[in-house]
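Example S7 (structure tokens).
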């Protein structure tokens, strides 16, 4: 069995570089037009998107372009031009949700493979066969599908590639087909501008129409986050997924998430995949790193359990938590300096989190020390100074001065600290 693909989000060019550095085999990204993440898509112009595709290919890896919005009639001429322009950049696939767009993409760019978006809701081999007949190369399975059902799809359609989400945000609505944001704020989720209204706190009331009395059902200053789905985390089930032999790609959600999130999730699932093929998979090994990212609490979703078999997919207490660690700095691409993301202080030990398969050596000089402690690489600054010699006792996020490192570190390394409490 060939190794499974690890597919990571690329919300902008820097995150794309981080995803590839931290172990992704492929990334998915898009220009804002007709993508279901308009905010992240705005990070790319046509020119920078073409540069990103070329950069990815130079790494020997793949880029899947998102064209997964649901267009109206008035948008079709613009959509045609968009597909033609992006196709000329030679992405490795188009991610498409609407059947009409599949047909249009095949007409304009028959050489670009089509991957069917999860929002197409494929749950059975009957639906998969229809899309396969339309020329779709890969199905990105509905979030609600089970691994057993995917095994049946592969049995009936062995030529069809299957991709599943293994980590990231889960939508309150069925396969993400949500209208809450549209109703409450006029931002249309299915065209890429979801306002995440399901994450808000809501308070429930009972109203007596005869008396006009209004009763508050639950006493709480914040109300309850009754529609707030936990985040998906299938790291403990990677072995089970790969043992099935039917999954071609493991996908991480998160084009609007932080650079640190992209790096940590990619590196962790890269490790889980490599451990599997080396017969060293340990389901307890990956949780700690994923817990360092901001999350809404974790659930293993529905791939290995039916929805009616569990009642732990909602986080009713809060919309997001900080995770166990805070990123304090991010190392520049050339590895010589870092930018503060929280608070950097003198003589404080910070974790050094590097891209996949890279290592460093211990050292000590006038600027700082790098050393290994409890199995983790650490850094401590004796001086916080810019390349032109400006010195600080402490530096906070928002300060755009680059800080010199004691020694060059791998590009896009993160420095982090454990959150107290």
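Recovered sequence:
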């Amino acid at each position: 069995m060939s190794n499974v693909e690890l597919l990571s989000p690329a919300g902008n060019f820097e995150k794309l570089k981080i995803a590839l550095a931290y172990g992704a085999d492929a990334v998915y990204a898009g220009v804002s037009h007709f993508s279901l993440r308009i905010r992240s898509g705005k990070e790319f112009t046509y020119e920078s998107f073409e540069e990103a595709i070329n950069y990815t290919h130079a790494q020997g890896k793949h880029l899947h372009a998102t064209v997964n919005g649901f267009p109206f009639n008035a948008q079709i001429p613009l959509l045609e031009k968009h597909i033609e322009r992006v196709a000329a950049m030679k992405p490795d696939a188009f991610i498409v949700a609407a059947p009409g767009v599949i047909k249009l993409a095949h007409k304009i760019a028959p050489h670009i493979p089509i991957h069917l978006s999860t929002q197409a809701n494929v749950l059975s081999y009957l639906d998969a066969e229809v899309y396969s007949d339309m020329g779709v190369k890969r199905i990105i399975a509905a979030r609600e599908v089970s691994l057993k059902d995917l095994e049946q799809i592969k049995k009936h359609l062995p030529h069809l590639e299957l991709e599943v989400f293994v980590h990231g945000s889960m939508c309150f609505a069925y396969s993400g087909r949500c209208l809450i944001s549209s109703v409450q704020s006029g931002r249309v989720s299915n065209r890429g501008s979801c306002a995440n209204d399901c994450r808000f706190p809501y308070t429930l009331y009972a109203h007596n129409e005869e008396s006009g009395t209004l009763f508050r059902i639950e006493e709480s200053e914040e109300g309850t986050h009754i529609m707030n789905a936990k985040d998906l985390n299938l790291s403990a089930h990677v072995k089970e997924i790969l043992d099935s032999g039917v999954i071609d790609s493991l996908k991480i959600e998160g084009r609007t998430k932080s650079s640190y999130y992209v790096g940590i999730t990619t590196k962790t699932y890269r490790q889980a995949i490599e451990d599997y093929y080396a017969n060293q998979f340990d389901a307890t090994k990956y949780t700690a790193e994923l817990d360092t990212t901001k999350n809404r609490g974790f659930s293993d979703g529905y791939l290995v359990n039916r929805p009616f078999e569990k009642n732990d997919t909602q986080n009713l207490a809060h919309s997001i938590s900080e995770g166990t660690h805070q990123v304090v700095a991010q190392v520049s691409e050339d590895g010589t300096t870092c930018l503060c993301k929280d608070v950097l202080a003198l003589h404080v030990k910070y974790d050094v989190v590097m891209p996949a398969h890279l290592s460093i050596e211990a050292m000590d000089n006038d600027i700082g020390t790098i050393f290994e402690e409890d199995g983790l690489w650490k850094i401590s600054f004796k001086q916080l100074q810019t390349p032109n010699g400006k010195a600080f006792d402490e530096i906070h996020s928002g300060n755009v001065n680059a800080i010199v490192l004691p020694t060059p570190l791998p590009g896009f390394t993160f420095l982090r600290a454990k959150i107290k409490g």
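Notes on this example. The longest helix spans residues 259-277.
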